[in-house]
Design a protein that fits this description.
The chain is mainly alpha-helical. It is built from ten helices and no strands. The protein has one domain.
Length: 228
Amino acid sequence: MTTALTYTVIPILAAVLGGLLTLLRRPSHVAVSAIQHFAAGIVFSAAAVEILPHLKHQGALWPIVIGGGLGVGAMLGLKTIGERTEGKIGLISLIAADLLIDGVVLGLAFDAGEKAGLLLTIALTIEVLFLALSVAAELGDAPERRIRNMVTTSLLALMMPVGVILSAPLAAAPPMVVTGAFAFGLVALLYLVTEELLVEAHEIAEPPWATALFFVGFLLLLILEDTL
C-alpha cells in the first residue's frame, strides 16, 4: 500500500497542473476534446492490458459476475444522481466519488503487481488532468474564481490516496472478494471511457487528429507495457 500511496502523488500533481492551466488560460474546446480522447485511449488500454487478463486468469466466474454487476449498478447510480443533482456541490461530489473509486482500483492494481500499478497510474494521471480542466471550467471562468477553482481541483485529487487506503482491507480479503473488486474496477474504468470521456469529447465537432489521439493513447500504453 505504501508504494501505491507514493504513486498517487503523480495524479495529484496532474490535478494541480490542470488547475494552474485554467488559472492562466482556459483551454479551448478542441484542446479539451483532444485530452479526452487521449485519456480515454490510455484508460481503455490499461483496462484491457492489465485488469482484464488478471480476471481471466482467476478462473472464478461468479465473483466476476457479481463484482461486475455491482460496478454497473454503482456507475448507473452515480449517473442518476448526477442527472438529478444540480449545482456545483453535486458536480464536486460526483467527481470525488469517481476519484475515490479510482484510488481503490489503483491500490488493488499495485497489490497485483508493480507493473500493473504503474501503468494504471499513468492512465489515471491523464484522466485526473482532464477532470481538473473540466471541473475548473464548470465552476466558473471569472478571474476572482480561478484560484478557488484550482484549490478545489487539487483537493479533489486527494480522494485517490483515500481510495488506496480503503483498498487495503480488500487486498487482504479472500481471493474471491479480490476478484470481485477487480471486476468492479474494470466496469468503473470502462464506464469512465464510454460514458464520460468519449461522450463529452464528442459534444463538439472535433478534428480528425483529436479523434486519432484515442488510438495514440491506446497504442502508447501497449508500448509501455511491452517495454516494462
